[in-house]
Amino acid sequence: RCVLKELESLGKALYGAKLIAQRFQVRNCSHHKDPVSGSACLLSMIEEGNPHHFFIATQDQDLANKVKKKAGVPLLFIIQNTMVLDKPSPKSLAFVQKLQTDQLVPEHQKQSIVQLKEREGLAKQEGEKRRKRKRAGGPNPLSCLKKKKKKTQEGQEPAAEKKKRRKRKRNRIKAEAVQPVQKNEEE
C-alpha cells in the first residue's frame, strides 16, 4: 500500500507504473495509517529473515544494495525488456553455508569433537606457525642467458671451413626419352 500511495503522489509521470502495481495482490504492511516511502516499506517487509519469502524487483541501486545486505532475499531487475534474477549475495551464500554445516553436524556433537581434540592435543594452537605458500616465480634464469659463441682453437680451422659440402648432381633426362612420352600423351 505504501508503494501505491507513493506512486499516486508522484502524479501523471508514473501513471503506467501505478496501473501495473495495482494488478498485483496488495500486501498489508505495518504502516497503513502513516505511509512511508516505497523502499522503506519493502525493507520493513523483508526484515526478520524474509518469513514470507518475498522477491524484491527494483531498478533503484540504493534499495538493491540494502537488499543484498540481507540474507535470503532474491533480487530482480530489468535489463532491456528482460527480467533478470541477480546472483545470490555473499551474505545469502554464507547463510546457506552455515545452515548446511549445522544440518550435517548438530551443535552438541561439534562441542564434543572440540573437547576430544583438546584431550588428545590435536586442537590448533594460536602460536602454531603456518607454512608459506609457494608463489609463482619468474622465468628460469638459465633460459634467459645469451647464447655462447663456440671457441675455436688456434691449431684447428673453424667448423664451417672444416666440412666440405658435396654438391648434388642432377640427373637430367635425355631428350630422346622425353619425346616418346610426349607423343603418348597427345594420342
TrEMBL record:
Q: Which GO terms describe its biological process?
A: rRNA processing
Please give the InterPro entries that the UniProt record associates with this protein: Fcf1/UTP23, PIN-like_dom_sf, UTP23_sensor
Which keywords label this protein?
Nucleus, Ribosome biogenesis, rRNA processing
Point to the regions of Basic and acidic residues compositional bias.
106-129
Q: Which portions of the sequence form the region Disordered? A: 106-187
Residue ranges of domain UTP23 sensor motif region in the record = 130-149
Q: Which Gene3D superfamilies match?
A: 5'-nuclease
Q: Key word Nucleus present in the record?
A: yes
| A GO CC term attached to the entry | small-subunit processome
Its biological purpose: Involved in rRNA-processing and ribosome biogenesis.
Official protein name in the record:
UTP23 protein
Q: Which organism is it from?
A: Calonectris borealis (Cory's shearwater)
